[in-house]
Specification:
This protein is α/β, with parallel strands linked by helices. It has twelve helices and 15 strands. The strands form three sheets. Strands 3, 4, 5, 6, 7, 14 and 15 form a seven-stranded mixed beta sheet that branches. Helix 4 packs across helix 5 and helix 4 packs across helix 10. The two termini are 13 Å apart.
Length: 332
C-alpha cells in the first residue's frame, strides 16, 4: 500500500510517499480502506520530533481517517452496530496517512448520512478532542459562555458549532478579519482580533464583567495568567496544546478566591476504552446534529498524498480556516 512517511525529523519536505505492507487487524480491530485522511497539528509536531509515537502505534503519521471497512473482528463490529462494507470514520493513534489503516472498532463511527467520506475524514480528531475537553473536562452547559483561543483552527470551528448546538454562547480569538467573519458565520457570538485587541478587556466588555465559564486554550504559556482574568467564578480553563510555551506564572490567589479550575489533557496516549466511551457519546449527542445539518463540515484544503508537505506547510502558516485533508483517490 502507499503511505506518507516521515523520512527524518524536519521541515515539511521530509514527508515522502513510500510503500509499506498492508496492516493486519487483531482482536477488537478493523481494517479500513482509506478514502481520505485528516491533517492535524499533532502530525506536524510528530514530523518535527516533538510528539513521540505511543508504544505500539504506527510510526506513519495521521490520527483520523474515513473509508470502508475491509476486514476485522466481526463480533466487535457487530457489538457497535458495524460490519464489513460499512463507511466509517475513525480516530487512530497513528497510521492514518495510508491507503489502509487499522483502527480499534470502538473508535469507529459511521459516516454521517449526507456526508462524504472525504468530509468525514476531518471529524474524529477534533470532535473527540472537543467533546472530551469542552463537555467532559470543561463541563460546558447550555446557557454558559465558552472562549475558544484560535477559533478558525480545525478544533476551533468544531468547538464553535458543537457549543452553539448545545446552547452555549461562544467567543473566539482569531488573527485576522477574514477569520473573524468565518467564525461569526459558523455561529460564534463575538470574535476578538488578538493581534490588535486585548482579549481580557474584550471578554469583560462582552460579558458585562462576569467573565466566561469555560476556556479552551491551545496556547498556554503567558496566556494562562491572562485567562484567569477572563473566567467567571467557578470557571474552568482547559489546556489542550502549548503553542505559546509550557511555562506559566499565575496568581494562585485568584484561583482560590474565585474557585477556578485549571485542567488539560492529551488524547493520543489514552486507552481504547476511554476513546470508545467518547465515541458512544458523540454518536448519541452529536451525530444527529451532523446528519440534520446543524453542524456542517468546514474544509479549507484537499491535497493528494504526494502533496502532504504542502498541507503541513499550510498548517504551520496558520492561514487556513477549518480542516486540511488528504484524498487517497487523487493521483500522485
Amino acid at each position: 500500500m502507499r503511505v506518507v512517511e516521515i523520512s527524518a525529523y524536519g521541515a515539511p519536505e521530509v514527508l515522502r510517499l513510500a510503500e509499506r505492507e498492508r496492516p493486519v487487524p487483531g482482536a477488537g480491530e478493523c481494517l479500513i480502506r482509506v478514502a481520505a485522511s485528516g491533517v492535524n497539528r499533532p502530525d506536524v509536531l510528530q514530523r518535527t520530533g516533538n510528539y513521540p509515537v505511543p508504544p505500539g502505534a504506527s510510526d506513519i503519521p495521521g490520527l483520523e481517517v474515513a473509508g470502508v471497512i475491509e476486514d476485522g473482528d466481526a463480533a466487535a463490529l457487530a457489538e457497535v452496530g458495524l460490519a464489513v462494507g460499512d463507511h466509517v470514520c475513525a480516530l487512530v493513534a497513528g497510521g492514518g496517512y495510508a491507503e489502509y489503516c487499522v483502527a480499534p472498532v470502538g473508535q469507529c463511527l459511521p459516516v454521517p448520512r449526507g456526508w462524504s467520506d472525504l468530509e468525514a475524514s476531518g471529524l474524529p480528531e477534533t470532535f473527540f478532542t472537543v467533546w472530551s475537553n469542552v463537555f467532559d473536562r470543561g463541563r460546558l452547559q447550555a446557557g454558559e459562555t465558552l472562549l475558544v483561543q484560535g477559533g478558525s483552527s480545525g478544533i476551533g470551528v468544531t468547538a464553535i458549532q458543537m457549543a452553539k448546538a448545545m446552547g452555549a454562547t461562544v467567543i473566539v480569538t482569531v488573527g485576522s478579519e477574514d477569520k473573524a467573519q468565518a467564525c461569526l458565520a459558523l455561529g460564534a457570538d463575538h470574535a476578538i482580533l488578538y493581534k490588535t485587541q486585548d482579549f481580557v478587556r474584550e471578554v469583560a466588555d462582552f460579558t458585562a464583567g462576569r467573565g466566561v465559564d469555560v476556556i479552551l486554550d491551545m496556547v498556554a504559556g503567558p496566556y494562562v495568567a491572562r485567562e484567569l482574568d477572563c473566567l467567571a467564578e467557578d470557571g474552568r480553563l482547559v489546556i489542550i496544546a502549548v503553542q505559546g510555551g509550557v511555562n506559566a506564572e499565575i496568581h494562585a490567589g485568584k484561583v482560590l478566591r474565585r474557585r477556578l479550575t485549571i485542567t488539560g489533557s492529551t488524547l493520543r496516549p489514552r486507552p481504547v476504552a476511554f476513546k470508545a466511551a467518547i465515541a458512544r457519546q458523540l454518536r448519541e449527542h452529536i451525530w444527529p446534529l451532523l446528519e440534520s445539518g446543524r453542524i456542517r463540515p468546514v474544509v479549507y484544503g484537499v491535497f493528494a498524498p504526494a502533496e502532504a508537505a504542502q498541507a503541513h506547510a499550510l498548517m504551520e502558516s496558520n492561514r487556513h480556516i477549518g480542516k486540511l485533508l488528504i484524498d487517497w483517490g487523487r493521483i500522485g
